[in-house]
């Protein structure tokens, strides 16, 4: 590997250790070569070529995506809300500068317009250079990119009912650093204001049932205080700590059943998907008994 | 932590690194104190007290169980075959010396007899000392312990049709070392011979879809060549590499639907289960598209 004094890499291995979010446990990935490291205006960014997971994007010390397993996250955070909606046409992505969610959104033939709001342009540029398989939809004719704060963007939309969205996907980094505000009640209220009456919202929960169940319970309670329905589901990703990541899905109306696909993928759509399918949609909402009870019967 | 020159522990962290089974990735657990380390006649055994996962049992360098998350594995490998069966009375556990599966089996009021065949008595004694929450059913009146090779035990049973089992659970360690033979076709044939006509067999697959999909495909194909049905399902366990572990479930008859619970837990049974529930039973068979296609449409 190239020389690197970045403290998270030692003896040729990247170590994801975080005493606050997941004390006492860690993930290691073998590093072939450091491709990029800097502190942008907003966060610490590391890209390395790993031995067995392809190129890896790390923000503030936490793995965001690897080329080998990124589809599990991108597909589930995108297709769960889009197939839970009967006819999504206008989609907003808050964050998601690596382009992975955008790649999935434009697979839906019914989508006319996909807007991506990313605060940190350097993430987009790095993804285009080092994660080209993810950053492949920025030039798509349906796509609009806004380089600005997602919070402020939503505040502006909330004032203009005609701009509201069918689906909003919050693809933020974890709630320490620039993304902290995405995990609070005010953010759910903004999402609610920016969503059409029959719309669906999804946000990554940054945690999973094994790591911080009480945090998830609080997040679902917070979302439930704003939306008519808020449900927890998850996707499995081997390079996220504990091997899974939670997602929170919400609607404004009681009668939208988020747990089942309202539309099924067409054959053409399904052939482009490696993780999502309609059965997996439903299965991802099924939780172990102890987690279900803690989240839904506090 | 106490002093220890065991090579898998460095700077106070246990590192699970295995270039053969999962090259380029690793799991770390912070060690408070090494409780036990030896090489038994059959394997290298390590027990340590971790910072955040309770006591941890490691065989040949691979985490077998931690007090915090062991129920996810024990419950699923036990309750999937037992609830897929309409009336399991006579249950065999091959391996499982830590006692966790036995603890789950005796929760079923319909089970009359649970036989555990473990080759390595030291695992039982260590579990009784360091994992008492798992090793709590050895004295149960339904339980018989046989300290012998599981393979030979099954060969003997195969000769005596009257001794056949309703459910057989193979709770082995991974297929390097003493458990290697548990992952080959001859073993499935022995299981078939030792099982009643309406019986159900389950074995841990030692891998998951993220790590070694071709190995799983071959294992399912091997089981399918012996049994009328062989299906793959999984459980999530944060301290197993990649966060999940596969299980292979088999029956002799086409008309047993392994994917759904044939009986539901009684209220009394369900109240003792932290992971398993009837919905989770079915969800655990739902696979990501790419994995499903690779396993079932080779």
Automatic annotation (TrEMBL), chains A, B:
In its UniProt record, a GO molecular function of this protein is: spermidine synthase activity
Q: Which residues form the active site?
A: 171 (proton acceptor)
Which spans of this chain does the record mark as coiled coil?
A: none
The UniProt keywords, alphabetically, are: Polyamine biosynthesis, Transferase
Example GO CC term: the record gives:
cytosol
- Which Pfam family is one of those matched by this entry? Spermine_synth
Known InterPro entries for this protein?
A: PABS, PABS_CS, SAM-dependent_MTases_sf, Spermi_synthase, Spermi_synthase_euk, Spermidine_synt_N, Spermidine_synt_N_sf
GO annotation terms (biological process): pantothenate biosynthetic process; spermidine biosynthetic process
Q: Check the record and name the PROSITE patterns matching this protein.
A: PABS_1, PABS_2
**Per the database record, which ranges form the PABS domain?**
11-252
**Of which family is this protein a member?**
Belongs to the spermidine/spermine synthase family.
Under what name is this protein listed? Answer: LAME_0G11694g1_1
Query: Source species, please?
Result: Lachancea meyersii CBS 8951
